């Protein structure tokens, strides 16, 4: 029997998980040997496309042909991307290209074709965005068993069975905070709030601006000009951000024509330059609780989802409000995909109800 498949099509990174009856779900390796696939597409006028790590690296050489953050346009009527050769693609087609690649990698990892899949969608996604996601998957040749909301999938991955739960999902491109109750009848979303323009990418932007300012003091105004240099700078700043989640200080090395320039960044400085972003992130959590009519004191469990929740300041902010410890027992990058696979597996055995093509 083919394993149940769950797909988390993320704004900056995507993942596929598989679940078999009686076994723990697992995220599948892609053909690059990674568990996460960058949600980046490199297009050419000849109709060809590269997806994932290769496309992400290509942003340094042909940034005008690379599409990033397509999920931010999910369901946006009329949005298109035009490559350097004049080729035009819509958001739905871009999503379909990524989904096809994810499905191919999953089949290769399993050594067999995949069957039906369960996709995830933000809890705040409207009908148009959900239809677009389903259409993109079907155009990519996938058979969609249903959609499950991302926070519900996260709850399944964390093994939540009872209580009032806050799912704090800060990914690379978007933030969504959901308050839900879980009981014997399943998960019930009370309220959700979010910011489609707030994610790790925006924290990278602040670090880029700071590093660029420091480099220009050392090397003059021209060193970082051009799409290639900006793409290289973004890559280094993303790496530095990750390093600052583990260490209190890091260094960035920027290559010049005949020498390298070093910029030191401390975690404290990084947190200062992004303080307003953290305040926005906190306000979304407060708004979600307000919509639900639930106080922080009534929250039994907080689930941290999305790679950007690894930033210590994010966890600190949440735990100060909660007055307790957030749950980090599941890899935040994998939780949604793992939960989708569980939903797919249990939906087939009747543990979750299927209604109008969607998992509830």
Automatic annotation (TrEMBL):
Alphabetically ordered keywords of this record: ATP-binding, Chaperone, Nucleotide-binding, Stress response
InterPro entries, A to Z: ATPase_NBD, Heat_shock_70_CS, Hsp_70_fam
Gene Ontology MF terms in the entry: ATP binding; ATP-dependent protein folding chaperone
Pfam families, sorted: HSP70
Entry's family note: Belongs to the heat shock protein 70 family.
Family annotation (PANTHER family): HEAT SHOCK PROTEIN 70KDA
Annotated protein name in UniProt: Hsp70 family protein
Organism field: Actinoallomurus iriomotensis
Upper lineage: Bacteria, Bacillati, Actinomycetota, Actinomycetes, Streptosporangiales
């Amino acid at each position: 029997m083919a394993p149940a498949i769950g797909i988390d099509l993320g704004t900056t990174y995507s993942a596929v998980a598989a679940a078999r009856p009686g076994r723990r779900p697992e995220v599948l390796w892609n053909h690059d040997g990674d568990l996460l696939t960058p949600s980046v597409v490199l297009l050419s006028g000849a109709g060809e496309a590269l997806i994932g790590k290769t496309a992400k690296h290509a942003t340094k050489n042909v940034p005008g042909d690379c599409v990033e953050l397509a999920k931010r346009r999910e369901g946006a009527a009329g949005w298109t991307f035009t490559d350097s050769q004049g080729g035009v693609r819509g958001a739905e087609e871009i999503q379909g290209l990524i989904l096809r690649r994810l499905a191919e990698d999953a089949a290769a990892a399993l050594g067999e074709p995949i069957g039906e899949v369960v996709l995830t969608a933000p809890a705040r996604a409207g009908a148009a965005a959900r239809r677009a996601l389903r259409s993109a998957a079907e155009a990519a040749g996938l058979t969609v068993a249903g959609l499950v909301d991302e926070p519900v999938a996260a709850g399944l991955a964390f093994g939540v069975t009872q209580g009032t739960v806050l799912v704090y999902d800060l990914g690379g491109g978007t933030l969504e905070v959901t308050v839900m109750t879980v009981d014997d009848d399943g998960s019930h979303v009370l309220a959700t709030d979010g910011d489609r323009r707030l994610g790790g990418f925006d924290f990278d932007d602040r670090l880029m601006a700071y590093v660029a300012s420091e480099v220009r003091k050392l090397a003059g105004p021209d060193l970082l000009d051009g799409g290639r240099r900006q793409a290289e700078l973004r890559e280094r700043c993303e790496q530095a951000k990750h390093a600052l989640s583990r260490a209190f200080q890091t260094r960035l090395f920027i290559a010049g024509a005949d020498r390298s320039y070093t910029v030191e960044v401390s975690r404290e400085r990084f947190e200062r330059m992004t303080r307003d972003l953290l305040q926005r992130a906190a306000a979304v959590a407060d708004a979600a609780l307000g919509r639900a009519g639930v106080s922080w004191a009534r929250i039994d469990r907080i689930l941290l989802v999305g790679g950007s929740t690894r930033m210590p300041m994010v966890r600190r902010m949440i735990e100060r409000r909660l007055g307790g410890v957030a749950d980090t027992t599941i890899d935040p990058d994998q939780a949604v995909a793992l939960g989708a696979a569980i939903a797919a597996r249990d939906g087939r055995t009747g543990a979750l109800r299927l209604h109008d093509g969607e998992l509830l």
